[in-house]
Amino acid sequence: MTMNKSIIFIAPALLAASSVMMLSGCSSEELSLGQGDGAITVRAALSSDVKVVSRADADDLRALYGESLQLWLTKPGSGPVRRYEGIDNVPVDPVVLPSGAYVAEAWAGDSVSASFDSKYFKGFEPFDVTAGSTTPVSITLRIANVVVSVDVDESVDNVIREGFTLTAGHSRGELTFEGRDERKGYFMMPSSDTDLTLTFDGQTLDGKDYTQTETIANAAPTTEYVIHIKHNPKSENGIGGAFLDITVDATEIEVNDEFVLTLAPDIRGMGFDIAQPQLTEEGKGIRRSVYISAADELSSLILDSEALTSVIGRRSVDLVNAADDSYEQLLNQSGITVQRVVTDGVLTAMRVSFEEEYVAALPEGVFTYRFAAADGELKSEAALTIEVSNAPVAMNPVNETEVDYTSAVLRATILKDDMSRAGGNGFRYRAVGESAWTFVEGVVADGEMTATVTGLKNATVYEATAIYNTYETDPVTFTTKAYPQLPNASFEDFTDATPMLFYSGDESNMFWDSGNHGSKTMGKNVTEVDKTIKHSGKQSVKLMSQFVGMGSLGKFAAGNIFVGKYLKTDGTDGELGWGREFNFIARPKAIRVYAKYTPGACQSNVVSKAYKNPEGWTAGTMDQGIIYAALMSDDTVDYSDGSQWSCVVKTKSSQLFDSQAANVVAYGQRIFTEATPEEGLMQIDIPLDDVHGNLEPKRIIIVASASRFGDYFLGGQGSTLWLDDFELIY
After folding, report:
1. In whole angstroms, what is the distance from residue 127 CA to residue 623 CA?
2. Gyration radius (Cα) of the chain, Å
3. Residues 150 and 166 sit within 8 Å (Cβ to Cβ)
4. pLDDT tens readout for residues 600-636
5. Residue 65, phi then psi, degrees to nearest 5
6. Residue 339: which residues within 8 A CB-CB, separation 6 or more?
7. CB neighbours (10 Å) of residue 267?
């Protein structure tokens, strides 16, 4: 049995959540459940196939895969109700949900067809939410790969020369183990190919080539297959006396114990955002409590502020390890109260409250109280800032949850409401960098002035000030939300195999596809990545047209990429589904992309075999590249496998895309009639002009090809189109 450990990341607030209820006088700060609602606390674990023996191993696992973790909380029949990305973004607070049955699903790592380095993890855990109660939910992400390792017996040296290899693979990828290779191979099996093929290659001692092939049928995920290779001297089937026994031991990868990796202590404001300044008028008290919790034990809590000097005679004190309690008594007397949460004899949390009488005694100014908490070697820091002012109004930071694509809610705290209002109270705002301000009148109620501003530009930084009784505050900034963009628009996520595919995680996340499925029959990728030419990130996508095959058996294949899916190969022709669903918050007016194009010349054998030659090209004619895009309605075509597409392209019957079809909302294209003039990628903007502009866009098609007439198998050898950073312009 393989020994493994589950690496569990525990957010400290989860362990202390129930303890908050033990503190007195905090009813307004407790978790509020509506009628029929319940709550869950979540923890996520990564289960590796490698035995974890130290905290450093756990840290490595977290560093490698924690950032890629995605957690969905799904209600069957309704889809995801919560989504979280990154282990650090798994919620530390209880999650409130309507009562009912749910499923927690999680993924982490890279779903690569075959790799010595990339691992992929999956988790699935049903749970129930019960009204009025809090339920812990723990989801373990187990390694989802088929894992392969090789064990070569010394007896092999008696019959096989050094330099032998074992290749393991399936239709989408393979790995080669060289000699006594100690690495492990990680495979993601295609749904249509569940067998792993093993091929041993070497030479016998007398110099003859030796090959032996075996198959692991129905290779299962979360399983390690150890390939044992041994010489069998009793066999009569060998070549030159050498015959190998290749046997396989399959062991399910299991979690036998847990290595708990706690996060650093959590420091938060109770009922307020500790990262934002807390505003108050001089002489007017407000109460602010800071809650500090540890997953294991709170070993230190240092409170530091220049304002403490007049209270305890020094600016800082360790509230956990002070030599005596005199400092704490002085703090309590001044209005800074300290409470502790002890669980099973261990200090797990503390609450430090700045009571109303303490805050009311502060003079005008800015007072910062720094907290430094430790849980063993793990440390956290945070600061509470209290601003005391005689100004009549203070502009509040704009809450991200109240900022939309074209609107935002502005808020200001009324600090003094004892003057006659001069009128004109409200806010001024403008895009950062612009000179003209726009005024909007505010609504004053319950000590707060608010206004909703509309007509803003998406993805734009604005600044705003509050005006009250002719007093104007300093500006605060906020950024409007960006309209949705295309997934994997920079082509950073791909599978390094033939065919090379472009997606992250697994094929359910595929948005782009290419003709690589067809060219793979000749071991070619007509579309791949290029790390030497790029606009941003690690690489661009490179579309290179080429003749694939030999003589009459081959065909011209255009380097291409498109939004959709390669459905099947019909002989030497492809059937493609074009058009993916897209969440159009607003209608884009153009497509932007960074491109470089170099055409090749048509060759006579390509011209003679083309299905169609619309412009009468001859041998030597220089190729043309193309990019085109269309916004599509929800009118779709059913394919034989049950999938639905805006357009189904069948090159064999010249069933192609019609830019004037009844379901086309808008269309635009760019034809490259010659090489682009710049050495690198150049910005290309393609306007999307109305075709049937009265329709609502629901889907999108984007197609790019290094050969404009590639659908007709016509183009120039070596024509290349590089693309990077597709962007929708609104």
Report:
1. 58
2. 33
3. yes
4. 999 998 999 888 899 999 999 999 999 999 999 999 9
5. -125, -15
6. 23, 350, 351, 353
7. 22
